[in-house]
């Protein structure tokens, strides 16, 4: 990625991407005019990029300028891009760079709402942390949308998330309320076997559908003109609900901008040096260096914690991840109860997670938020799977 060297560029351009690389910087005409006007009469003490960043952040915070947020989005495209490249290179290549970058940028309000300049963390560094957590969560949900059956997906996600998904699909209030009630009846009535959570739940039986449709008929509110539903139609409604959830959880390409302000020959302009590789070599080397350093530190922390595990915990991990035994197979192999295997696995993972959490907190210098903890748990599981591969590769 070619760095933006001028203050005007930093606060008025958006990254243009294809599926795998940066193409150039797109200039927004209205933002450029606004930035140039402010530079002609700059506020006292505002000169550097960092000072302008705090200036626009304060104007966004107090609601004094309708363009302040757009200037901050332009500024934050760089950490969004590098976060997207980091996550895609290290953990998930199925989604495009554009998917991931735009998913990060679409959540820029979470960055702005959580940022506190008094704490001493600059906005770009803070945004990188938040964007990576957002992308990890988005990838986890994308994976769930891929692998869960319709019936698993409906049990997994809350009615609030379902309502959001239905609204995105354009269902009116009456349809949305009917679908939500149907899903509530499904959650209250269908008791799958086995009871444990699974991504591969089988569809309810015909008797289940009859029972759910009956419960819906009792609970529906005729004054809201909620329709009745036979068992077959009831199932169709739930399938539509699952479809809406999948579409919401699957990132789609979209563009972020002020919108409607481009001028012919001026508004859409690519800032790029044709002599440079679109992926700036210096930025590429810096990213790779950071990623390699991260992986080396991660491997050092976790391999050290792994060596510190007392017997027989390492043996259980070896059987579970290298031999790919399930818990029952491990129990039979070792001549112990299955619940003992489960306890040993949990104890080993807890020991490793504690070591990882202590290391992460030292790096971040902040309390660990829920999304960070969830991301570390996912990272630990991926590391264990790679570490115990027969080739000992993947780190």
UniProtKB/TrEMBL annotation:
Membrane-spanning intervals of the chain: none
Keyword Transcription regulation appears in the UniProt entry: yes
Keyword Metal-binding: no
The organism's place on the tree of life at top rank: Bacteria
InterPro entries, alphabetized: RNA_pol_sigma-70_dom, RNA_pol_sigma70_r4, RNA_pol_sigma_r3/r4-like, WH-like_DNA-bd_sf
Keywords for this protein: DNA-binding, Sigma factor, Transcription, Transcription regulation
Residues covered by the RNA polymerase sigma-70 region domain: 315-352
Gene3D superfamilies given in the database record: Winged helix-like DNA-binding domain superfamily/Winged helix DNA-binding domain
Cleavable signal peptide: none
NCBIfam families xref list: sigma70-ECF
Protein name: Sigma-70 family RNA polymerase sigma factor
Organism: Gloeobacter morelensis MG652769
Biological classification of the source: Bacteria, Bacillati, Cyanobacteriota, Cyanophyceae, Gloeobacterales
């Amino acid at each position: 990625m070619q760095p933006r060297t001028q203050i005007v560029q930093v606060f008025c351009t958006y990254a243009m991407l294809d599926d795998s690389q940066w193409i150039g910087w797109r200039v927004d005409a209205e933002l450029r005019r606004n930035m140039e006007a402010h530079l002609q009469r700059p506020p006292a003490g505002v000169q550097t990029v960092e000072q302008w960043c705090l200036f626009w952040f304060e104007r966004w915070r107090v609601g004094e300028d309708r363009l302040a947020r757009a200037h901050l989005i332009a500024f934050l495209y760089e950490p969004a891009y590098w976060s997207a490249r980091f996550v895609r290179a290290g953990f998930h290549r199925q989604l495009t760079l554009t998917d991931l970058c735009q998913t990060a940028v679409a959540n820029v309000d979470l960055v702005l709402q959580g940022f506190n300049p008094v704490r001493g963390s600059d906005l770009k560094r803070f945004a990188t942390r938040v964007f990576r957590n957002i992308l990890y969560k988005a990838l986890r949900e994308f994976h769930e949308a891929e692998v869960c059956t319709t019936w698993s997906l409906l049990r997994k996600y809350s009615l609030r998330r379902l309502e959001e998904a239905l609204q995105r699909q354009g269902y009116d209030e009456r349809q949305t309320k009917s679908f939500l009630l149907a899903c509530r009846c499904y959650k209250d009535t269908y008791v799958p076997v086995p009871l444990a959570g699974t991504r591969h739940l089988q569809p309810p039986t015909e008797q289940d559908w009859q029972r759910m449709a009956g419960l819906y008929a009792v609970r529906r509110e005729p004054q809201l003109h909620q329709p009745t539903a036979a068992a077959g139609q009831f199932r169709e409604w739930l399938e539509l609900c699952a479809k809406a959830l999948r579409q919401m959880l699957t990132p789609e390409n979209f563009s972020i901008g002020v919108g409607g302000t481009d001028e012919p020959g001026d508004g859409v302009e690519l800032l790029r040096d044709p002599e440079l590789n679109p992926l700036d070599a210096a930025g590429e080397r810096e990213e790779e260096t950071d990623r390699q350093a991260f992986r080396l530190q991660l491997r050092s922390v976790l391999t050290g914690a792994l060596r510190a595990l007392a017997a027989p915990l390492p043996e259980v991990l070896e059987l579970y991840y290298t031999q790919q035994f399930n818990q029952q197979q491990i129990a039979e192999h070792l001549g112990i109860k299955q619940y003992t295997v489960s306890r040993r696995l949990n104890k080993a993972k807890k020991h490793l997670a504690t070591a990882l959490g202590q290391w992460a907190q030292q790096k971040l210098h902040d309390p660990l938020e829920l999304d960070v903890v969830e991301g570390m748990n996912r990272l630990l599981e991926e590391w264990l799977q790679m570490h115990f591969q027969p080739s000992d590769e993947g780190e």
